[in-house]
Design goal:
This protein is an alpha+beta fold and 167 residues long. The protein contains five helices and eight strands; from the N terminus they run E-E-H-H-E-E-E-H-E-H-H-E-E. The longest helix has 15 residues, at 100-114.
């Protein structure tokens, strides 16, 4: 029996956050591609299309269905052959309101924790803090409340954080 994440849909005012990993309909993926290209988050339609298959959670206006943000997770294998998720988050500037980023991440984490029963499912998530705002200590504390801990430094000096899904 497949367990559905407890927060597969969460509402925040006139917005909702939905877990869609592995089940995003074609129309939603196309909307996300158009969203990233329109917002300038990605400039290559090919890269936007590729990443649309990695969308784990999406932030949308409830009435219009407009995309406001998305959290993607690329599933990769580490040096030991174990899978992990590489997390990226983008919310359009006009929608960067308090709590939206956290809710996108919470929904994504809850969704992957619900998949832990599957053989080969990722046991951890990795994020590289590339945004100067997110590198601040306050933002790192928020990431800590989500279960992320400092895991090192990437080339170029960016902070790497990791969240264990098994704890």
């Amino acid at each position: 029996m497949i367990k559905t994440p407890s927060a597969s849909v969460a509402t925040l005012g006139n917005t909702q956050v939905r877990w869609v990993f592995g089940k995003a309909p074609d129309m939603l993926r196309q909307q996300i591609v158009a969203f990233w290209l329109h917002e300038g988050a990605l400039t290559s339609p090919d890269e936007a299309w590729r990443r649309s298959w990695e969308v784990a959670s999406v932030l949308q206006e409830m009435e219009s269905g407009h995309i406001l943000g998305a959290c993607t997770v690329a599933i990769l294998l580490d040096d030991h052959g174990a899978s992990y998720g590489f997390v990226r988050l983008y919310i359009r500037p006009a929608s960067r309101l308090a709590g939206f980023n956290v809710r996108l991440m919470e929904t994504m984490i809850e969704g992957f924790k619900a998949m832990m029963h599957e053989p080969g499912a990722p046991r951890r998530l990795i994020v590289i803090l590339e945004n100067r705002k997110i590198e601040r200590r306050a933002a790192q504390r928020i990431m800590g409340r989500l279960g992320f801990v400092h895991a090192g430094t990437a080339p170029g000096g960016k902070v790497v954080m990791q969240c264990s899904l098994t704890a």
